[in-house]
Design brief:
63% helix; 0% strand; mainly alpha
Length: 121
């Protein structure tokens, strides 16, 4: 397994794959993430924000020690409800993967509703 740095762990916590998606999710410039890579660290303010959004431990996120969530890594959307930003910015934070998951769930729900209507009618 490849060694992870704090930036890689931030991407895991937020459920994103690229530095570009990381920047979008955090609503920061892509050049900021490039700067983190050069310095080999995630700034404390951003690390705290990521931990608050996802529930991962700062010890894991910053230092790679222990486990993020009692031994389980959750690959899920950040909890944008906790952020005090406009709804349009929250929507922009969702990666394409999360949007696709939402589409699939919506389709599944529609199919189940149709099946229920047929069963009742």
């Amino acid at each position: 397994m490849l060694e992870q740095n704090a930036i890689d762990r931030a991407k895991i916590a937020l459920g994103v794959r690229t530095d570009v998606d990381l920047a979008k999710t955090l609503n920061i410039a892509q050049s900021a993430v490039a700067g983190w890579r050069k310095r080999g660290m995630v700034p404390q303010e951003q690390a705290v924000k990521i931990a608050q959004m996802t529930g991962v431990s700062l010890d894991w996120l910053i230092l790679g020690r222990n486990q993020p969530h009692n031994g389980v890594v959750f690959y899920s959307a950040p909890d944008v409800r906790k952020l005090d930003i406009p709804l349009t910015d929250k929507i922009r934070m969702l990666s394409d993967w999360h949007i696709e998951q939402l589409r699939e769930l919506t389709l599944e729900q529609a199919v189940l509703e149709q099946q229920e209507k047929k069963r009742q009618g």
